[in-house]
Amino acid sequence: QVQLVESGGGLVQAGGSLRLSCAASGRSFSGFTMGWFRQAPGKEREFVAAISGSGAYTYYEDSVKGRFTISRDNAKNTLYLQMNNLKPEDTAVYYCAVTTKNFLVGSRLYYATNQYDYWGQGTQVTVSS
After folding, report:
1. Percent of the chain with pLDDT over 90
2. Is 88 left (phi over 0), alpha (psi -120 to 50) or beta?
3. Angle, vertex CA 114, rays to CA 113 and CA 117, nearest 5
4. What is the mean pLDDT of residues 8-32?
C-alpha cells in the first residue's frame, strides 16, 4: 500500500546542484517525520537530513549543513532535498524514508535508520571532480 519513489538524481559536476524529490503514496505522511539517507558502496547507510511532520524542525548531518535544504509539501505528500555546492564525497544512492514514530524535538532518533518504517528504492547521485 505504502510507496515512496525518489527522483531527481543524476550526474553533476562538483559545485553543481540537484533537487531530489520523494513522492509518497498509499497514505498521508503529513503528520510524520521524513528523512533523507544515503549509502555509498562499501559503506553503511547514513543520515543526511530530516524534517518534522509540520516542517517546523529540520536536522542535518554536519557535512551537508549550509549546502543541503530539506523541505516538504504536505498537500502533495512529497519530500524534497535541495543539494547545492555538491562535492564528490556526496556521491551515493539517496533514499527517502518515513517514520510513524513521534520524536521529541532535538531527539537523536531523527538520525537513526532503524527508527524509520518506510523506504524508497533510492536514486543515484554522482558528483564528478
Report:
1. 93
2. alpha
3. 95
4. 96
